[in-house]
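Record type: monomer structure entry
Structure origin: computed from sequence
Chain ID: A
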Amino acid sequence: MPLLEASHVSVDIPTEDGVVHAVQDVSFEVRAGEMFGIVGESGSGKSVLTQAMMGLLPGADITGSVLFNGEDLLSLTAAQLRQVRGRGIGMIFQDPLSSLHPYFKIGPQIAEMIHLHERVSKKAARERVVAMLDRVGVPGAAERYDDYPHQFSGGMRQRVMIAMALVLHPKLVIADEPTTALDVTVQAQVLDLLDELRHEMDTAVVMVTHDLTLLGSVADRAMAMYAGHQLEYGPISSVFLRPSHPYTAGLLRSSPGNVAEERLIPIPGKPPSLLTVPSGCVFADRCPDVMDVCGTVPPPRREYTDGIEVACHLKRPPVIPEIPPVEIVVDKTILESSAAPELDYSDIPVVKVENLHLSYGQGAKRHDVLKGINLSVASGHTMGLVGESGCGKTTLARAIAGLLQPSEGTIELNGRRLDSLTQLEWHEMRRSVQMVFQDPQGSLNPRRRIGAIIGDPLRIHKVGSKAERKARVQELMELVGLNPEHYNRFPAEFSGGQRQRIGIARALALRPSLIVFDEPVSALDVSIQAQILNLMKDLQDAFSFTYLFISHDLAVVRHVCDQIAVMKDGSIVELAPAESLYEDPQHPFTKELLAASVHEPPAAKLPERELVTIGEVSNE
């Protein structure tokens, strides 16, 4: 009997705009000790489904059944569910910082889980917590028991969350995007840890993610969800190596790990509104294989001998769409009139950093963040900065942008030393460097309309009249793929990918010599990642922009950068052209990063596939 068996689960959530049909008729099962993956874009219903199973959606209308050890979770009272949560089912959330209470020490927070479910002494609970922290790889677990969440790095906080989820030895752990914001080395450590613990404790893991490539290396079976619907389900070897649904194939093609093509192939369009249930296939509007029947008739569920179940009218494998053409209109007048005065920088690096040091504190409390950095970025090129959290990547970028004052060394921008500029000269130099931040929602003022946000650089530097600035902003919006008619909308009315485009448009407003991208796509779905990365490449080709690109995703860095600088503990340990660094890394740390970033596809010789059953279907 399966450990977890979900049958025909639907979740409807009432809102002010109407009822959101978040999950529609989803069925799957999870076996003891297996890694089961749920993959899909944001809004596909992945997290809603798992939260509904755990009773974490008060007010939602949930139908169907979810049997855990033979007991229907959806029929339990709130008190009964509290007994299941923690002891029977543990949860690891995406953002450990917001999931851990900042006012309480991490040890007592984990011990509270034990005291809620068992009658044990404080000493015994502490010993169990320390043992689990040690088991999940927290160094000095006994000493760190009394530390607060903010005293841990992102990867260590995630280990604390894993310890909290496993301290009662549950039979099932639900991990909701547990590695999205982590460095590749920490990501690999977390995945290895989950894999070890499930084999050691016979714990099943449900991994929720938008990255199908990641699932391909760790999962046993997987389910692809889109707009609340289950589109493909079965063994990961078949899902990954022989995707049957065009949506699953699209997720794989969107991955930056596809280095064979210069341009990525994003899934066009955007997911539909969940306020209405379409009469046909939910993916029809974005599908490269769409047929007339897809728009009117719900797809049948086809089952194959290799264990795959797919909801699709298609009788053949999905097609590979053509690489989309450049969509931007290359009209250089959009940016030229707002640009800084043109100078001949052909023989001068846009950025030149020499012997850069940056430290905090004094004496025994001094902390060296940057230690003798030397770096040069040529005009029209992209320099990638990679390394673990805390290695100094963002600090270096902020120093180059003039947001931090170095302790020692020099920074030159277009041949001018930043430390020699007067206040007026520095105000002008600000036009030459702009930043695009990791979190587009957090870097956009929610109370201001996007037209004003994008136009701020023009207003601050007194470029043009009010009417001219509005026209320029609308041109910039069109340039980055936004509808100029949405000039007066607020950031909340846009998707994550669109908000990142707003940030890029703002950075382009003054046509800077250098644009610093600080983890610009780490929080985005793979399809939206592909759109943003293609946009960056198109803009660079059209306007010869110079980029400094910071990321922990080495597949992304390889795809967009000409040169890559690998940082460790405040120093650059290796600097080389992108392909050379990937093909022949020299430094041991570079080799470690590359090894951690490689997600090996499932090793399987796929059997011949034959159709087992099929529902009623119209002729193609």
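Annotation 1: The chain has three domains: 32-53+171-324+599-620, 96-167, 333-586.
Annotation 2: Residues 326-332, 337-346 have pLDDT under 50 and may be disordered.
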